[in-house]
Amino acid sequence: MPFAPEPAFQHGQPQTTGVLYCNLGTPDAPTAPAVRRYLKEFLSDPRVVEIPRAAWLPILYGAILPLRPAKSAAKYATIWTKDGSPLKVWTAKQATLLQGWLGEHGHRVKVRYAMRYGSPSIASQLDALKAEGATRILVLSAYPQYSGTTTASVVDAVNDWAGRVRSIPELRFVNRYHDDRGYLAALAARIQRHWAEHGQPDHFVMSFHGVPQRTLQLGDPYHCECHKTARMLATWLQLEPERYSVTFQSRFGKAKWLEPYTEPTLVALARKGVRRVDVACPGFTADCLETLEEIAQEGRDAFLQAGGKSFEFIPCLNDDPAWIAALGAIAVRHLQGWPTEQAPDKAGLAASKAAALAMGAER
Ligand SMILES: C=CC1=C(C)c2cc3[nH]c(cc4nc(cc5[nH]c(cc1n2)c(C)c5CCC(=O)O)C(CCC(=O)O)=C4C)c(C)c3C=C
Ligand SMILES: [Fe+2]
Ligand SMILES: [Fe+2]
After folding, report:
1. pLDDT (0 to 100) of residue 353
2. Which residues bind Fe(2+) per the record (predicted)?
3. CA nearest neighbour of 332 among 95, 94, 103, 22
């Protein structure tokens, strides 16, 4: 395979460290054609649908891509903002705030965000970081819990890009932060604030995105990491086990997914006489279709129709300053040992000149 020509590295050219903040991706518009393009890319990823291509592609092209986009587009239309899809709006804002936080803490890095599916693509943003002089790149995904379906798929996309590049930057990946203290503290503080304003619910549901049950048997750590996050968050919130549930949402397709499923749990709680339920989605660091539509709209309707009286959705971390600080601290830990600025700054130059003079060296 031919490698594209690249400008040769120039001595004295400033080298920078890049941080690539990755999220899942979202359609470019709440329309059937845009959703079809997005779903085609997403659901063609062998990390996401782990069944043999020969069996899957006829289903994807024969049933899903002709039918699902219009239905999904109508759902996207209910959450779309003037600036676009919430997932992209939040992800872009998080990247800007992360850049600011790192700068304030003395780390001269260049932060860009990318989407695994859709735009801006991972390859385009790696190209941009490289063009900006990044010789070291930290890849940080918006997924606290590791899953082959998400985290590993980002690694694949980065490696595909590296496979086409001559001079590959040094690469590092953050695989998980499901038990990170800053992440948990930010979640706990957000939930506590909600309860300080609205009072405590009768029952608290932590709903995570599901994956096929089979991935758990195949060794995917996602299920365990979701449970660890939930357990630790419950400890932060001082909740006894009978006061909360851990559930999995967004089931896709006919196979068994991780259980218990969110919506049937909400219905069962209402039928059991639970009057008020609060739901948070700790695995989603930005609000998106799956939280704003599936939980805050469909989940609410299901709970209230089954006899529940009050349903509160607690928004995701989004641009919460405690979350940005946690993300910054995670990045800093993984940047350790990497000089964040190689070209000497003014103070460095002055110090080296002074040292040279003191040693009597000619200048
Ligand atoms: C939080 C982590 C996520 C995991 C794990 C995950 C696995 C996974 N998802 C699908 C299928 C779909 N997911 C869809 C939307 C969606 N998924 C996540 C996150 C995870 N997915 C997010 C943040 C979103 C929302 C995107 C947005 O635009 O707001 C969709 C598309 C929506 C729809 O048409 O209903 C599908 C499809 C599978 C199959 C899977 C693991 C096997
Ligand atoms: Fe998903
Ligand atoms: Fe969904």
Report:
1. 75
2. 209, 290
3. 103
pLDDT of residue 346: 63
Residue range 181-313 forms a domain whose CATH class is alpha beta
The ligand that comes nearest to the alpha carbon of residue 253 is: 1
pLDDT average per 10 residues of sequence, the chain (363 residues): 71 85 98 98 98 96 98 98 98 98 94 98 98 96 98 98 96 98 98 97 98 98 98 98 98 95 98 98 98 98 98 98 98 90 58 75 48
Q: Whose CA is nearest to atom 24 of ligand 1?
A: 290
* Both tokens assigned to 308: 């529940």
For residue 249, list its beta bridge partners. Answer: 209
How remote is the CA of residue 265 from the centroid of ligand 2, in Å?
A: 19
Q: Are 123 and 349 in contact (CB under 8 A)?
A: no
The rounded distance, in Å, linking the Cα atoms of 191 and 311 is 14
Chain centroid to Cα 162, Å, comes to 22
Would 16-178+320-358 and 181-313 be classified into the same CATH topology?
A: yes
Query: Running DSSP on this structure, what letter comes out for residue 36?
Result: H
* ipTM for the assembly: 0.92
Domain ranges of the chain: 16-178+320-358, 181-313
Whether the CB of 85 sits within 6 Å of ligand 1: yes
What is the pLDDT, as a whole number, of residue 272?
97
Give the pLDDT confidence score for residue 345 in this predicted structure. 56
Q: Are 309 and 272 in contact (CB under 8 A)?
A: no
CA distances from 195 to 83, 200, 222, 281 (A): 30, 5, 28, 16
Closest CA to 230 of 217, 216, 243: 243
| Cβ-proximal residues to 226 (8 Å cutoff; 6+ apart), any chain | 145, 178, 208, 246, 248, 258, 283
If one counts every other C-beta atom within 10 angstroms of the C-beta of residue 241, the result is: 8
Question: CATH fold of 16-178+320-358, please?
Answer: Rossmann fold (3.40.50)
Say what the pLDDT of residue 362 is.
47
